[in-house]
């Protein structure tokens, strides 16, 4: 057998997914140079989709395929924008050998080229979401009162519209891993709600892709990529940037990842928060499934509306929290304005002091006297905690916060049920007057989708990266 190789998850960030040199097989692609509109690239499956061989098309004028009107309208294509060129009957293309097939055309820029995706129009159910259904889904978002409830409405709505058998809202942490925060799934599937996944599952360039192009789809994870061909005479070696193509061939590592997860098709929608990717709406289907232009347009609209609402709900939630703190702070200042010694006043206001930071215990030390309120380990241990906290390097302000006292000093481990998180405010450094807030340990269990340290593996000889094969629940608990 092979020796296990230490796998560096940074390797996942190296693959240039925007220039795969290939597309997915359910459509075809042409690239042209806007000066003269001659065709410079085409996908090798052109004959199957359009009925014309690559050889007969490379080097000819775009108008001879799409007609002069569609070619003319390309002059209005703005940078970074996509443009629908409407539908084309394949049998109307001169020399085409494909009878009675309608293609949906959409154009986009790629460097100094203009490319066109050709997608066969499909008549199966689910491809054309009724407009009133989309409107009622968007309407339902009005009742969201928090980001979580919005995500729940979004996955339910997207599942109704798309019919995929699992739809998830996936939220990124600040550090890159993420978790499933809402889910709608077919009854026979196991729930993945709450599962966490390591950052390398969706590396940086994949996250960037969903900021540039909100919607992406894989029709069948077992597909064979279709290479792009270029005309020999045109000496065209620049790789085509397929960021904006709906047909872009995805990373082979990710295709294998999908197979290992047991999903054939995916439809993914980026959720943005300002310039950042907040998360994704991820749809899975066990059987292959093409997400056509209409479904993708509906998914795009849902993504835009959810992104906007996420921002305002976030503001509303933090506004409500700020308001509550202001009220509490007001209660405390009101108490302090009475003719009463500071220590007594703080003692009388201890309920508000606890509420202010959501603590369960507080020790107030003024003039060398320590008084404890709520759940605390008593004045002696509290003084010990203060001494240890005061030795923590500070960055200038008067607050010191730690989230696990036992990590600072193991002697505090036995008090974890009362005091594990601590916040120290120094009122007067010379007099050693302080307020110490305490919270009990909340040990946390995280269920990962597979061993998060396994990431994937690298074959040193071939350089091939393989994603992990098991996504079975992997339970990790964090104490302290
Ligand atoms: C892409 N990985 C993705 C995408 C998702 C995930 C959502 C975006 C494309 C898509 O939706 O199909 C991951 N999918 C998940 C996760 C869940 C899910 C976490 O449903 C959880 C429920 N992947 C690996 C390793 C590497 C890797 C080891 O496991 C790198 C070596 C890379 N993932 C990878 C790459 C892409 C990707 C390169 C971009 C694929 C592309 O668009 O070309």
Reported for the largest beta sheet, the result is:
7 strands, antiparallel
User: Which cofactors or ions or other ligands sit in this model?
Assistant: biliverdine IX alpha
Number of domains: 2
Ends: how far apart? 40 Å
Q: How many helices in DSSP terms?
A: 13
Radius of gyration: 29 Å
Helix content: 25-40%
Q: Any idea what the CATH superfamily of the largest domain is called? A: GAF domain
3D structure, described in words:
This protein has 480 residues and is of the alpha+beta class. Helix content is 29%, strand content 28%. The chain contains 13 helices and 22 strands. A seven-stranded antiparallel beta sheet has the order 1-11-3-2-6-5-4. Strands 9-8-7-13-12-10 form a six-stranded antiparallel beta sheet. The protein has a five-stranded antiparallel beta sheet with strand order 15-14-18-17-16, sandwiched between helices. The longest helix is centred in the middle third of the chain and has 44 residues, at 293-336. The protein is elongated, with a radius of gyration of 29 Å. Bound molecules: biliverdine IX alpha. Biliverdine IX alpha (BLA) is lined by residues 11-12, 15, 17, 168, 180, 192, 197, 200-203, 206, 209, 216, 218, 250-251, 253-254, 257, 266, 268, 280, 282, 449, 455-456, 465, 467.
Q: What's the SSE blueprint?
A:
Blueprint: E1 22-23, E2 28-33, E3 38-43, H1 46-50, H2 54-57, H3 63-66, H4 68-73, E4 83-89, E5 102-110, E6 113-120, H5 131-140, H6 147-162, E7 166-172, E8 178-185, E9 196-197, H7 204-212, E10 215-218, E11 226-230, H8 252-261, E12 265-273, E13 276-285, H9 293-336, H10 342-348, H11 350-357, E14 361-366, E15 369-374, H12 379-390, E16 399-402, H13 405-408, E17 421-428, E18 433-439, E19 444-449, E20 456-458, E21 465-467, E22 473-478
Antiparallel strand pairs: 1-11, 2-3, 2-6, 3-11, 4-5, 5-6, 7-8, 7-13, 8-9, 10-12, 12-13, 14-15, 14-18, 16-17, 17-18, 19-22, 20-21
Helix pairs in contact: 5-6, 6-9, 9-11
Bound molecules: biliverdine IX alpha.
